[in-house]
Design brief:
The structure is a single chain. This protein is α/β, with parallel strands linked by helices. It is 52% helix and 13% strand. It folds into two domains: 149 residues, Alpha/Beta hydrolase fold, catalytic domain (Rossmann fold); 60 residues, no CATH class. The two termini are 35 Å apart.
Length: 223
C-alpha cells in the first residue's frame, strides 16, 4: 500500500496541473503580478492550465503545437500513426531514437543525414541522462490519463500557432482547439513548418508572439 501511494504521488507531481500550480506560485513569490504566458507542445498544455486556473493573473495566452481537448479516438489514432513506443524516443537512449524524434518533429529534416552519431550521443548525455525516471513518469501520465475533449474555455485572448506539416499533432488539433475557444482566439498556420515551430520558423514565431502579447500587455512567461 505504501509503495502504491508513493507511486501515485510521483505521478501526481508529474501532471501538467501540478506543474502549472507550481509555476504560478513561484511567480507570485517572485513578486510577478499580471503576465502573459506562451508554451509549445507539452509546455502549451501547462500554459493552458495556468491560464484556466488563474484568469485574473494571466493576461494573454499563446499556444503552439499543443494537443488540448482531444478525444480518445484521436489519441489512439495518432499513437498508431506514429507507430513506435512513445517513451522510447521522447526520452531517447540512442542516436537512432533521437534521429526519429527530430525527423518526426521537423518538416525540413534533410540535415539529419549529415549529423554523425557521436553528436547525438553527446546531446543525449547532456539533455536526457538526468531526471530520466521523472521524464518517463511524466510521459506515462500523459499516455494513461483519459482524454478530455471538454476542457474549460479560456477567458483570455488566445493566439494558436501551428505548423502546416506537423506530424506529431496534425492540423485537425489546431482547428479543433480554435473552434473550442471561439471568438477570443486566433489561429495562425505557418507554411512548410513541422511540430518544432520554434526551430523551423523562429523569426515568424517571435514576430507573431511579440505583436500579439506586447500590445498594451504585461510580463510574458515562456513555459
Amino acid at each position: 500500500m505504501a509503495t502504491a501511494e508513493r507511486h501515485a504521488g510521483n505521478l501526481y507531481i508529474r501532471t501538467e496541473v501540478f506543474q502549472a500550480k507550481c509555476l504560478v506560485e513561484g511567480l507570485k513569490r517572485l513578486g510577478v503580478g499580471r503576465f502573459s504566458v506562451y508554451g509549445i507542445s507539452y509546455g502549451g498544455i501547462v500554459a493552458y492550465h495556468m491560464a484556466e486556473m488563474n484568469p485574473l493573473e494571466i493576461d494573454k495566452v499563446v499556444i503552439v503545437s499543443s494537443a488540448i481537448g482531444y478525444t480518445e479516438e484521436q489519441k489512439e489514432r495518432q499513437l498508431t500513426r506514429i507507430g513506435r513506443r512513445i517513451s522510447g524516443f521522447l526520452v531517447p537512449e540512442s542516436p537512432q531514437d533521437l534521429r526519429f524524434l527530430v525527423s518526426l518533429s521537423m518538416y525540413r529534416n534533410d540535415f539529419l543525414k549529415w549529423v554523425p552519431d557521436f553528436f547525438f550521443r553527446q546531446f543525449i548525455n547532456a539533455m536526457y541522462k538526468t531526471h530520466r525516471k521523472e521524464r518517463l513518469e511524466m510521459i506515462e501520465h500523459l499516455l494513461t490519463k483519459d482524454a478530455d475533449p471538454n476542457v474549460p474555455i479560456l477567458t483570455q485572448e488566445t493566439l494558436i500557432i501551428w505548423g502546416d506539416q506537423d506530424k506529431v499533432f496534425p492540423l485537425e488539433f489546431a482547428h479543433q482547439l480554435h473552434r473550442h475557444l471561439g471568438s477570443k482566439s486566433k489561429l495562425v498556420i505557418l507554411k512548410n513548418t513541422g511540430h518544432a515551430v520554434n526551430m523551423e520558423s523562429p523569426c515568424e514565431l517571435n514576430i507573431l508572439i511579440k505583436t500579439f502579447v506586447f500590445r498594451h500587455s504585461y510580463h510574458m512567461l515562456e513555459v
